[in-house]
Design brief:
With 439 residues, this protein is an alpha/beta fold. It has helices at 11-19, 39-52, 81-98, 108-122, 160-163, 167-175, 191-203, 249-269, 275-284, 308-318, 338-343, 365-374, 387-397, 410-424; strands at 5-7, 30-34, 57-60, 72-74, 77-78, 104-106, 127-131, 149-152, 184-187, 208-211, 217-223, 228-233, 238-244, 292-295, 299-302, 326-330, 351-354, 380-383, 403-407. The protein folds into two domains: 5-284, 3-Layer(aba) Sandwich (UDP-N-acetylmuramoyl-L-alanine:D-glutamate ligase), CATH 3.40.1190; 292-424, Mur ligase, C-terminal domain (Protein-Tyrosine Phosphatase, Chain A, Alpha-Beta Complex), CATH 3.90.190.20. An eight-stranded mixed beta sheet has the order 5-4-3-7-2-8-9-10, with helices on both faces. It has a six-stranded mixed beta sheet with strand order 14-15-19-16-17-18, with helices on both faces. It has a three-stranded antiparallel beta sheet with strand order 11-12-13.
């Protein structure tokens, strides 16, 4: 038998295949989320709020940080190995009769998507937070017909070779998840993005809830690395003293979008979500590898900033950590715009440790070092292509009050997170770790 032909198929093929299982994707209440940055954080916040209201939640996201199981979660718990194996075997066996060519198979992400719909329908979840893998219009998750709401988070440049080389083209792909007569939410995007999404919403007779920076009043009550306490007011909602456990101004932006989605669900679908559940959920939410503090002494932060806007947000968030030097670990996948990412990472770091992101398709540390040198980086540079050894080097280099920060890819975060957890003997308490903004 020849090698399996793993091909990406038209969405109609996926729909036809799932008919073999009774079209489970049409029997689940789905919140569909697309965007360049913020998809995972938005899903995590919404999931935690819904769970705090007492609902049974499912969440399908990508990529994973340490294990594939993380992509399939029910009430915050990843699927077991045994269940994952059962689902994979179920789909593999069904493909044998579905395809005329015995060597043909769905692509890997298509298989995962199929597995997710079967899994979450069998589990009878009340709601499924469904994150697109890439783009939206042609993404395998987009076979669904009647989401409760389609959510488009921040849109910026990423995967340009696939999604387009201008922001309007990328927005067009993201807007492809908007469905006929179903509401959509868009927040904190440029006018060009808004124009594309609004046009798509009009074509689909979709009521578009848009929250721009001028339409929301946000008051920061207090801020620490443990939580940001804020009040938010808009024509749609009014909240006092919300404590958000995810760190960074960009997470505050994501939270405003989440509040808009919640109001949309309540208004358009009659979903009951109390203010108490909103506050409890945002206070309790956790999202690995997004400005995640993985060590207290010394302070070590990992973030999956893997594009230009993500790098900007990462750099901005680091301004809130004062004290000693910044030791920066960077690993970037080879299909990413290395120069654009590097140009937006902190240039004031005392030391750069250039590494590979824990994936075979990553840039070598030498490439990353060269990109930093090309823009005039003046700090010390260490090249260590093994990400765990890069972390070890950072911990050996660090001095009192220094901050270690790693970014460039979620795969890098996955490679570092497990190592640092063992190295630093998790869990630890960060409740007393508060850092004023850098001066």
């Amino acid at each position: 038998m020849g090698e399996k032909k793993r091909l990406k198929h038209h969405l109609d093929a996926l729909s036809s295949f799932l008919e073999l299982f009774g079209a489970p994707q049409e029997k689940i209440k789905i919140i569909h989320v697309a965007g360049t940055n913020g998809k995972g954080s938005t899903c995590a916040m919404l999931e935690r709020v819904l769970r705090c209201e007492g609902y049974k939640t499912g969440m399908f996201t990508s990529p994973h940080i340490t294990r594939y199981n993380e992509r399939f979660q029910i009430n915050g718990k990843a699927v077991t190995n045994a269940e994952l194996a059962r689902l994979f075997t179920l789909v593999a066996d069904a493909q044998k009769t579905f395809f005329a060519d015995p060597d043909e198979t769905f692509s890997f992400f298509e298989i995962l998507t199929i597995m997710s719909f079967i899994f979450f329908h069998e589990a009878r979840v009340d709601f499924l937070l469904l994150e697109t893998g890439l783009g939206g219009r042609l993404d395998s998750t987009n076979i669904i017909k009647n989401p409760l709401v389609s959510v488009i988070t921040s849109v910026s440049f990423d995967h340009a070779a696939i999604l387009g080389r201008n922001i309007s083209s990328i927005a067009f792909e993201k807007a492809g998840i908007i469905k006929k007569n179903r509401p959509a939410v868009l927040y904190l995007n440029s006018k060009d993005v808004y124009n594309v999404v609004e046009k798509k919403a009009q074509e689909q007779n979709s009521k578009l809830y848009f929250v721009g920076s001028g339409g929301v009043s946000v008051k920061i009550v207090s801020r620490s690395v443990e939580q940001t306490c804020f009040s938010a007011y808009s024509p749609l909602f009014s909240y006092e003293n919300i404590a958000l456990s995810l760190f960074g101004d960009f997470q505050l932006d994501n939270a405003i979008g989440v509040l808009t989605v919640i109001e949309t669900l309540c208004r358009e679908s009659g979903v009951v979500i109390s203010a108490a559940a909103v506050k409890k959920g945002l206070r309790a939410v956790r999202h690995p590898a997004r400005m995640e503090i993985v060590s207290k002494d010394p302070v070590c932060i990992i973030d999956g900033a893997h594009n230009e806007d993500g790098a900007k947000a990462f750099t901005g968030a680091l301004e809130y950590f004062s004290g000693g030097r910044l030791i920066l670990i960077v690993g970037i996948l080879a299909d990413k715009p290395i120069n654009d990412i590097v140009a937006n990472l902190p240039q004031t770091a005392a030391c750069l440790i250039a590494t590979k992101p824990g994936a075979a398709c990553g840039y070598d540390g030498e490439d990353i070092a060269e990109a930093f040198l090309n823009i005039g980086f003046g700090g010390k540079i260490i090249i260590e292509n093994n990400p765990q050894k890069a972390a070890e080097t950072a911990f050996k280099t660090v001095e009192k009050n220094d901050v270690i920060a790693a970014a460039g890819s979620l795969y890098l975060c996955g490679a570092l997170r497990g190592y640092i957890k063992r190295y630093k003997a998790f869990p630890f308490d960060i409740s007393n770790l508060t850092s004023p903004k850098r001066r």
